[in-house]
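Bench notes, afternoon.
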Amino acid sequence: MAQQLQIDDIQGFTVRGYTFFYARYLFLQFKSAAQGRQWLKQVVEWTTPATPWKEKPRVVQNIAFTHPGFETLGLTKTSLDSFSKEFIEGMDKRCRILGDTEYPSRPDDWEIGNPNEPDKQIHALLILFGMTPKDLNEFSARHEEVRNQVGGIEVLHSVDGVRRLDKKEHFGFLDGASQPQIEGIDAASNGADDPNSPVRRIKAGEFVLGYVNEYGIIPPSPVVPADEHSQKLPEVPEQPNMRDFGKNGTYIVCRKLYQNVAAFREFLQENVTQFEAQTSKLETVSEIEWLAAKLVGRWRSGTPLMLLPDRDDPIAGKREHNDFSFKDDPDGLRCPIGSHIRRSNPRDTLGLEGAHGTESYKAVNRHRILRRGMPYGPALQGDKDDREDRGLMFLCINADIAVQFEFVQKWMNDPSFNGLYKDQDVFAHNHEGKTYASIPVEPVRKRVLLKQNFVTVKGGAYLFMPGMTALRYLASM
């Protein structure tokens, strides 16, 4: 039986995929605890819960905080220490695990969250969405008035996201084609609760604290002292002097990822000729599109190669985009083993001893993430680099950063993923030395040299997005 989620107490960004076309990401710093709490008190009721809408609003907002942000707001050391190790350390300290070790993606090179700039330490991320640019700007102006009134709230960085009408990111692929379905949020459908189904719903505890996860347990949750301010927070079993601050909250990973679109297009042009024997058989798609799809595992429309290996034909819905497995393609002749989608979600072919079929799904479903990204910057016109800043504001939701986001990131960077050798995901940002993308074709596989990075990490942060009750608790401290 699906768990009953307290929808009204969960911030909407956590479990609802907003479909707004315009977003603004404001990275904030509080100059004092009093000013930070006063600011939050002014804007907390503008925050959007996950409650279903009778009519879509014109603007919404959600708020998340870094560990230094909670410290500045006045959480006790006991409370601060109760958060996860990864969140406490921060994204920059996890650079080796994430592969952020080579110029220009090192933390020392970041423009957001650079550890060498303590005066620009991020305390909070305010995410605003608008139906139109006018709606977004007017909402932003209301926030600016509050900041001016309170004082001591500095906007360190502001990034505007714009969702394209075709819903594609700058490399030209449908964005968000693969999203896990959540038990208790998404309606049951065929295969939704079948352990052998690629579209089985994932336990809510993988994304929201306070609920059972894929391990059958409730993940650890940060706590605060039981006092007159925290009475509305849930009690903590066997800790009568503490209250559950994390219930209905989640951890957020935010990364600004620059995309070198011109270099990616040039790379495709340079390498497609070695596949003439395969692409000469194509009738409805170009050679370039075939190679791009092999590297990603999907056609530009989001249609997976496992369903249509020889042509791009858009599929109707998100469930249909994901209702497939890799069991009939053990050698990757349809969808290469090292392709982007097989690394990020190996489904029933994880490659661990004994982990095939159901056991593979069990293992993989413990590492899923919810992506909430949006492109930023103008689309590239033509194929030459125009030096504009463009890319993806990558945000993902997970109850355990190490087990979910960081684990998937290791799959992206692993040169020996599922038995490969010196291979990496084409969009990995740390092609140190010679790395390749292997594409199995008859009679033997071919390897494409990845001699440069197409994605650069521009910075970001690990954040925690509290539930609505916890958010009001912060404002009342």
